[in-house]
Amino acid sequence: MSEKDYTVPALQKGLQILGMFDSDTRSLTQAEIAHTFGVSPSSLYRIIQTLVGMGFLKKISTNTYELGSKVLSSGFSYLASRETIEIAAPHITKLRDITSLSSHLAVREGTENLYVFRALALQRLSVNVPVGTRFPCHTTAIGRALLSGLSPATVQHLYQGKRLDDYPAMPPQSLPDLISMCNLERRQGFHINASDYAIAIAVPIFNYNSEVVAAINVSGPEAMMSKPDLQQLLVSQLTDTARDITTEISGIVRK
Length: 255
What we know:
Blueprint: H1 9-19, E1 28-29, H2 30-37, H3 45-53, E2 57-61, E3 64-67, H4 77-80, H5 82-99, E4 102-109, E5 112-119, E6 134-136, H6 141-147, H7 152-158, H8 175-188, E7 191-195, E8 198-206, E9 212-221, H9 222-225, H10 228-250
Antiparallel strand pairs: 1-3, 2-3, 4-5, 4-9, 5-6, 7-8, 8-9
Helix pairs in contact: 5-10
């Protein structure tokens, strides 16, 4: 048997449909999708409804769809973040050059943050997290920045049955503590975390739908980063950088 004999046409079409969406094509009608395949809209109905039911597509009006939240989770987050990486990389590198501190980009997969890009600081004393590293979101500033776009009810559902007290005392030790800290940090506009003689400050990045799709940070030695005046300056530089990235991703200027 050839490899073609083992393919699943419906699955193949479903993945091809997801691949039709990008920064320039944010929504498609069922007719437009069908036109690409050269078939009738009704022949794709079951596939599209399956994608909607699983959260990979979201119906926004009559027979019109956009990518659903599932594309940004459950193992799709790295693939979905590739465009974000391409857009964010030069901004993060510029941030590193301005601050002389390491800067990272991360996306969320469930309750973990996944580092997908880094700009290394050149100083001898620096904090550099390798690409591909994962940490529990509640234990890092960049992780809590990723959680900041979720409602308290969603956070509660996400962490249901999970222990938070297996880590040093700095991170939240319980779900109420986590929700309270996320609310506090969201109001102040930045997220901060200290561990292993280092401090990191992070802010979220949004898409065109005002959803948190990634987060960036700067991190460095505690002796340097603990200065309030420097922290205030870094928050301003981070916020400006995140706004520039968000603007490119979404085409919408956030104030």
